[in-house]
Amino acid sequence: MTKDELKKKIGQRIIELRTQKGWSQSDLARACNKDRQAVEKLENGKVNPTLYTLYEISKALEISLGQLVG
């Protein structure tokens, strides 16, 4: 798997988990202290998130980091 493929896969996973909670991008952004544009870029695979960013998102979504990236 390439880096770009992995970024897109993680982005799709975030979209899936966020929509299961009925959250908008703005809702997720507020829950993890990011701005909506940062969430949008992450979901679209445009940025390479840090491990800490993924941790913040997993905490906001109330899942483990493994559930987010696994």
From TrEMBL:
Span of domain HTH cro/C1-type: 14-68
UniProt-listed SUPFAM superfamilies: lambda repressor-like DNA-binding domains
Family matches, as InterPro entries: Cro/C1-type_HTH, Lambda_DNA-bd_dom_sf, TransReg_Diox_bact_type
Keyword tags: DNA-binding, Transcription, Transcription regulation
Residue intervals passing through the bilayer: none
Transcription regulation recorded as keyword: yes
PANTHER family reported in the protein's UniProt record: HTH-TYPE TRANSCRIPTIONAL REGULATOR (PTHR46797), HTH-TYPE TRANSCRIPTIONAL REGULATOR SUTR (PTHR46797:SF23)
Record's protein name: XRE family transcriptional regulator
Species annotation: Fulvivirga kasyanovii
